[in-house]
Specification:
With 158 residues, the chain is α+β, with helices and mostly antiparallel strands. Strands 1, 2, 3, 4, 5, 6 and 7 form a seven-stranded mixed β-sheet that branches. A hairpin with a 6-residue loop joins strand 1 and strand 2. Helix 2 runs antiparallel to helix 3. The longest helix is centred in the middle third of the chain and has 13 residues.
C-alpha cells in the first residue's frame, strides 16, 4: 500500500555540482518533545501526533511565521497541534534535513504539558501519550527518535 510522503520528512542527499538546493533559503521550523507525568502512575510519557495527510507519527512542530522567535513558534505549534499549553525547558538538538527540495532546520525544546486537552484538527487526527521506549518505536522518522533520548538526558533519566 502506498502512503503519501511528507515533504517535511523526506531526507535526500545530493552530490556533485548539480545540487538543486545550492543557495536555497533554509526553511526554519520549531517544535517540542512534549512530556508529562502519567495521571495513572506518575511515569514519564511523551506526546506523539499523527498527521493523516502523511500518515506519520512525529513530535509537534511547524514552520515559523515571519519574524517569530523559534521558542515562541515551538510553543504555538504545540498548542495548535495538541491543544496543550507547555512550559518550555531545555533546548534539545536542532535537526536539519532536506524537505521538498529545500534545506530545513527544526529547533526543538523539551516542554512539559501543563494544561489543555486534545481535539482532532485539520493537521492532527490522533495524539498518543507513550512511555519513552514505545514513543521511540512509534516515531516514523529515525531522526525524531534521537530527540526522545535527548529528552531523557535533559530530564536526567537516561
Amino acid at each position: 500500500m502506498s502512503t503519501p510522503h511528507d515533504p517535511d520528512d523526506i531526507s535526500v542527499t545530493t552530490t556533485g555540482t548539480t545540487d538543486p538546493t545550492a543557495g536555497a533559503t533554509t526553511v526554519q521550523a520549531a517544535g517540542c518533545v512534549l512530556w508529562r507525568r502519567s495521571p495513572a502512575g506518575g511515569e514519564l510519557e511523551v506526546c506523539l501526533v499523527h498527521r493523516p495527510k502523511y500518515d506519520d507519527w512525529s513530535h509537534p512542530k511547524g514552520k515559523l511565521k515571519r519574524g517569530e522567535e523559534p521558542l515562541d513558534g515551538a510553543l504555538r505549534e504545540v498548542e495548535e497541534e495538541t491543544g496543550y499549553r507547555a512550559a518550555p525547558g531545555a533546548r534539545l538538538p536542532t535537526v536539519a534535513y532536506e524537505a521538498n527540495g529545500r534545506p530545513k532546520q527544526v529547533s526543538y525544546w523539551a516542554a512539559e504539558a501543563v494544561a489543555g486537552a486534545f481535539a482532532p484538527n485539520d493537521e492532527v487526527d490522533r495524539l498518543l501519550w507513550l512511555p519513552p521506549p514505545a514513543a521511540r518505536d512509534r516515531l516514523t522518522q529515525p531522526r525524531d527518535r534521537t530527540l526522545v533520548d535527548a529528552l531523557l538526558d535533559v530530564l536526567h533519566l537516561a
